[in-house]
Amino acid sequence: MWKNLKSYFIIEEEGANQPAAPDLAKPGPSPKLPAGVKKNAEAIRVEQGKQGEGTTAGAVNDRFVQVLMEAMEGVNLPGFDYLEYKKSLQNLKKMNFNDDVLYRTAYAAAQSMGVTSQDLVASAQHYLGALGKEEAKFGQALKGQESQQIQDKETRLKSLGATIQQHQAQIKALQEQIQKVEAEQKELQDAILANADKLAKTKADFEYTYTLIAGGIKKDIEKMQEYLK
Description:
The protein is mostly helical. It has helices at 2-9, 35-47, 62-74, 82-92, 99-112, 117-168, 175-227.
């Protein structure tokens, strides 16, 4: 069912580019990491000749689409509501109506069932609220991943730095041990960068997918409020 619901918001055509998200979903700088992690990651990038954090472009991610669609399905209201209205809009788009005719024509079916424009806007806001809850849950999950995949490794990295300083003050017999620790340090540095980039991409994919869907709902609300009076 979620794939059917997906088709109301994301139209996929073979050989075509993925649908553009609203302006609020334009790719921007990578999500900000915690201060300590960001500082350390920047230092590592400078060491490796990679200045700055760069940008991470978001894309529609089916895994996130499924989560968001199922969140709306889980709070599906009985009877003809915004989701049914959205389906009518999608079916009518092939007729190349302008927005005024498109929204009013789809609204005719709703009126025949006793549904008002206020009912449609309220139900659209109801689903937008369900998406907002998923966004909050994603934020919490991302924080947990940051702790597990970045902060713990950063703590270990700092510990290894202290170990290196201690070994550098010791006699040459400890040089072999220092080299082993340095190798582990490099491995952790690479892991931090890889995990930071992976998390940034995951966040960007979610935000792009979320804003594409949520932005569509918000646009529909604006159109309904404008045309369905």
